[in-house]
Design brief:
Elements: H1 14-27, H2 32-53, H3 67-78, H4 83-103, H5 132-141, H6 152-165, H7 169-173, E1 180-181, E2 188-192, E3 198-202, H8 205-222, H9 243-256, H10 269-282, H11 287-294, H12 299-318, H13 322-331
Antiparallel strand pairs: 1-2, 2-3
Helix pairs in contact: 1-2, 2-3, 2-4, 5-6, 6-8, 6-10, 10-12, 11-12
């Protein structure tokens, strides 16, 4: 039980237990963005609970949180949020209560009786157009993206890494210089993935060369060696690249290449990850192989790319004008 996590009545407060759980998650080396999301979800619902009960979060004993109060808190929380946001908050609280049960702070997990939105199945959103990724890389390499301090080698390295490895934004931003490991021609990227799951992704010699060229220009720009613990990708000031900077870089690059209209709604950096996965499926990779490379915890997510690819291939076959003639002949055999 965390130190100081008891009030005058001897009951652990919700605020203190949330702090203990976040400390537990931090010890698992979760990505910074994931920790922020957990904190936001936990504190938001805790605020609703405290208001429902009529106390502050610091005064609310965890034992007083009931299924009924949780249902009310989630109903209020859902009023101004999307289904996916509510579902994420539900998962955060489900994990929180599992932690409380293990720690002996509560006798059971009430979350199974708290309703959560039923999400529609999501479909991959790769870049539209067969040659779009290649056009994007060629034009960025040529300096099409205009910036105050142009750095096409860095831009190309980032876009190439996303398109050739399928990394998530947080995974790319979490890479260090030493994450690029192995002998020349056999390099791999060691990735700290979602949920603390690490994986190693082999990279082709072409991407290896792009990354080496970028690192060489980085040394020249800032005139210093690159210790292995430094972030692999930095901004034009040599500071770690952040999520907002990455999104801006990708958005401006797509616009400069004239392909911003080929990004589907709701996708940006993730469109490059989806493009990588879709091409794997098109080239015959199975769900297990895709799951391993993308860091999926379940092959069900990876199977989506295969199912969508198969469906689109069938639609393409049906679009062949020859089938129109075959349909006419099947309806009127005597026309021969």
């Amino acid at each position: 039980m965390p130190t100081g996590a008891r009030d005058a009545r001897g009951a652990s407060t919700l605020t203190d237990w949330i702090a203990a759980y976040l400390e537990h998650l931090q010890a698992r080396k979760l990505a910074e963005n994931s920790l922020r999301a957990y904190r936001r979800d936990l504190e938001s619902i805790a605020s609703e609970l405290a208001e429902i009960v009529g106390v502050t979060g610091d005064e609310l004993p965890v034992e007083s949180v009931t299924a009924q109060s949780l249902r009310s808190a989630f109903a209020r929380h859902a009023a101004s949020r999307s289904a996916s946001s509510v579902t994420r908050a539900w998962s955060s609280w489900n994990g929180f209560f599992r932690f409380l049960v293990v720690e002996g702070a509560t006798s059971g997990n009430p979350m199974p009786v708290v309703p959560k939105p039923r999400l529609t199945a999501t479909t991959p959103k790769p870049l539209d157009g067969e040659e779009t990724p290649e056009r994007l890389l060629r034009l960025v390499a040529q300096g099409a993206r205009k910036a105050r301090e142009p750095w096409p080698e860095r831009d190309l390295a980032i876009l190439s890494t996303l398109l050739c490895t399928g990394l998530r934004s947080a995974e790319l931003l979490g890479l260090t210089v030493s994450a690029l490991a192995g002998r020349r021609g056999e390099r791999r990227l060691h990735v700290h993935g979602k949920g603390g799951a690490n994986r190693s992704i082999p990279i082709d010699e072409s991407l290896e060369k792009v990354l080496e060229d970028y690192l060489e220009t980085r040394k020249r720009r800032f005139g210093r060696r690159l210790p292995g613990g430094e972030p692999l990708f930095v901004n034009h000031r040599g500071e770690p690249l952040r999520r907002g900077g990455l999104q801006y870089l990708v958005r401006q690059s797509l616009r400069a290449a004239g392909v911003s209209d080929r990004v589907r709604r709701g996708a940006m950096v993730h469109a490059l990850r989806h493009t990588f996965a879709t091409r794997l499926a098109e080239d015959g990779a199975n769900a297990a192989e895709i799951a391993k490379l993308l860091g999926h915890s379940s092959i069900n997510s990876s199977q989506t790319y295969i199912d969508v690819t198969a469906r689109e291939q069938r639609l393409s076959v049906r679009a062949n004008r020859t089938h129109g003639v075959l349909n006419e002949l099947s309806r009127n055999p005597e026309s021969e």
